[in-house]
Amino acid sequence: MVSLRPRRNLALIWLLVLSAACAHAPQRTVREPSLEPPAQVAAHSEPSIEEPVKRPKPIAEGLASWYGDAFRGRLTASGTRFDPSALTAAHRSLPFGTCLRVENLDNGRQVDVRVTDRGPYVNGRILDLSEAAARRIDLVRQGVGQVRLFRCGG
After folding, report:
1. DSSP-assigned letter for residue 145
2. What is the CATH code of the structural domain delimited by 68-151?
3. Phi, psi of 86 (to 5 degrees)
4. In angstroms, how far is the first alpha carbon of the chain from the final one?
5. What are 117's strand-pairing partners?
6. Other C-beta atoms within 10 Å of 61: how many?
7. Does residue 12 surpass a pLDDT of 80?
8. What is the C-alpha separation between 38 and 118, in angstroms, rounded?
9. Which DSSP category does 12 fall into?
10. Are the C-beta atoms of 34 and 97 separated by less than 8 Å?
């Protein structure tokens, strides 16, 4: 006697495959383009009032200095090795990894740096920059300069 069970299973699988193929995918809503003509600006219209550009609020202002090759390879307070060609900085209290935008107040140049170390340990200074960061804002020759600090992206 021949068993019909394998044929029945095969038919059931085939039926499931067909029903899955016929299932509808959820419909996506497509926006129709507007048929209205674009608004025309009158020749004598009032100028539009735009919101003023929001400048980020500075978190500090003061003197910055830089440090370079003499510290190459030494461990920083965060545990990384100091690289004078990286865009990093030392700050007394900001958390390690904080991104700072540093603006040289003498020339307006800016650079973004990561806090990886503690310092500076000279009274009156608020930041020590890596040599690469100091070069970006043209601070290497004078050694010390007036800067303004912002948080990156804000």
Report:
1. E
2. 2.40.40.10
3. -90, 155
4. 81
5. 90
6. 12
7. no
8. 57
9. H
10. no
Secondary structure (3-state) at 87:
coil
All residues at 6 or more sequence positions from 117 whose CB lies less than 8 Å from its CB, including other chains = 76, 77, 78, 82, 88, 89, 90, 91, 128
> What is the C-alpha to C-alpha distance for residues 121 and 4, in angstroms, rounded to an integer?
89
The whole model's pTM is what? 0.65
Length of the chain measured in residues? 154
Q: Take residue 101 and report the two structure tokens written for it.
A: 């935008």
Q: Give the bridge partners for 143, in sequence order.
A: none
| pLDDT given for residue 5 in this prediction | 62
* Best CA proximity match to 91, nearest among 63, 141, 126: 126
Contact, 84 vs 72, CB < 8 A?
Answer: yes
For residue 66, list its beta bridge partners. Answer: 129
Q: Which among 136, 125, 55 is positioned nearest to 88, based on CA atoms?
A: 136
15-26 pLDDT, tens digit per residue, is 555 555 555 555
